[in-house]
Amino acid sequence: MELDLVSHQLSVFSNTGWHFGIPFKGNNALGMSLQIMQMLATQGIKLDEYPLRGFDDETLLSYDANAADAFRRAISWIDVVFRTFKGRLREETGPVQLFPHHLDIAMNWFSGRLVPGIDPADEDNADEQMNFGFVTGDGSINDAY
Questions:
Q1: Domain ends where: 62, 87, 103?
Q2: CA distance linking residue 101 with residue 99, whole number of Å
Q3: Are residues 58 and 87 in the same domain?
Q4: Are residues 51 and 80 in the same domain?
Q5: Is the same domain home to 52 and 79?
Q6: Range(s) of the domain holding residue 43
């Protein structure tokens, strides 16, 4: 599945060439969920339980195609900047990634040094690192960074 910000739809693809899309505009979470399940069923993929908890909201979703297009262009340019920056770093870096929870794009840089006072066996915290990212802000992150 992919969020297609060019065609303004949720696109689903299979390895057999099958594809379907659900438009963002004029839809709600429940409607999109039911359409996904129905389309999967047409391909012989039947879900034992319909996992609608959290996706049963019938509130019509607002969708601004122009704002989505501007966001897509911004993320594309930021991706180029981060990949160029990443390519110039000699030390280890993580991949440039778009994270779905806030639609932020980010990467990690690892200096190769250990953080003083942290147990070197602590894999999550022992390596000196820095995160570089961009997010527009949302309900839980007030400001862009």
A1: 62
A2: 6
A3: no
A4: no
A5: no
A6: 1-62
Scan for tokens 């570089």, then name that residue: 132
> Could you tell me the strand order of the sheet in which 19-23 lies?
2-4, 9-13, 19-23
Beta bridge partners of 107: 132
Question: What is the pTM (predicted TM-score) of this model?
Answer: 0.71
pLDDT tens sequence across 1-53: 898 999 999 999 988 888 999 998 888 888 888 888 888 888 888 776 666 66
Distance of alpha carbon 118 from alpha carbon 51, whole angstroms: 42
Q: Cα 17 vs. chain centroid, distance in angstroms?
A: 23
Nearest to 132 by CA among 70, 101, 86: 86
Three-state DSSP state, 66? helix
Tell me the sheet residues that pair with 133: 106
Q: Where are the beta strands (DSSP E) in the chain?
A: 2-4, 9-13, 19-23, 97-99, 104-114, 127-134
Residue appearing with tokens 């911004």: 74
Count of structural domains, the chain: 2
Task: Please tell me the distance from the alpha carbon of residue 37 to that of residue 47, in angstroms, as a whole number.
Answer: 8
25: number of CA atoms within 13 Å, CB side?
A: 8
